[in-house]
């Protein structure tokens, strides 16, 4: 029973739960980035280079057998080794966009943290000048003697 209890404590700790949430959100965010790259960025890039589907760019590393269409899928099915550089470029662009978005998020979070740390310091009253403090003490002393 001791090991089961320890496992339950470990599994429900905040760090494990936070990690699980991060992985789930990261997976969903990865799909968004894939769509952004595949459906928005890469079509614009492929338009600039003159082809519609950038991810299907490849170089056959061996002679292509007769009758095999010149598509990436057909080459792979036929067992022709290919250098699928278009897929690599797509993945590299995905990574660059994801890294940039994460950078912007961390930058925004750091800015918010700095503002929150600066706000309480500004809200604290300035220390009382020494002469005002002495005058208050004199006033309080005179009031106590008058009573």
Structure notes:
This protein has one domain (2-52, 84-146). 73% of the residues lie in helices and 3% in strands. It has five helices and two strands, in the order ααβαβαα. The protein has a two-stranded antiparallel sheet with strand order 1-2. Helix 2 (14-49) packs across helix 4 (85-123). The longest helix has 39 residues, at 85-123. It is elongated, with a radius of gyration of 32 Å. The chain starts with a helix and ends with a helix.
Keyword list:
mainly alpha; 2 strands; 3% strand; two-stranded antiparallel sheet; 147 residues
Q: On the 0-100 scale, what is the average pLDDT?
A: 82
> Largest beta sheet: what is the strand line-up?
1-2
Q: Number of helical runs?
A: 5
Radius of gyration over all CA atoms, rounded: 32 Å
Main pleated-sheet profile: 2 strands, antiparallel
Query: What's the count of strands?
Result: 2
Brief characterization of the structure:
The protein has 147 residues and is an all-alpha fold.
Question: Which SSEs are present, and which pair or pack?
Answer:
Blueprint: H1 2-11, H2 14-49, E1 59-60, H3 72-77, E2 82-83, H4 85-123, H5 130-146
Antiparallel strand pairs: 1-2
């Amino acid at each position: 029973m001791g090991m089961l209890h320890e496992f339950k404590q470990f599994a429900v700790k905040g760090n494990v739960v936070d990690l699980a949430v991060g992985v789930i959100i990261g997976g969903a965010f990865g799909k968004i980035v894939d769509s952004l790259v595949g459906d928005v960025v890469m079509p614009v890039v492929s338009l600039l280079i003159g082809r519609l589907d950038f991810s299907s760019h490849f170089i056959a590393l061996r002679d292509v057998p007769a009758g095999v269409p010149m598509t990436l899928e057909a080459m792979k099915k036929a067992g022709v080794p290919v250098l699928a550089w278009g897929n690599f470029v797509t993945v590299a662009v995905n990574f660059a966009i994801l890294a940039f978005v994460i950078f912007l998020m961390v930058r925004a979070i750091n800015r918010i943290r700095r503002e929150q740390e600066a706000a309480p310091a500004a809200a604290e009253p300035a220390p009382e000048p020494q002469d005002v403090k002495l005058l208050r003490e004199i006033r309080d002393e005179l009031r106590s003697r008058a009573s």
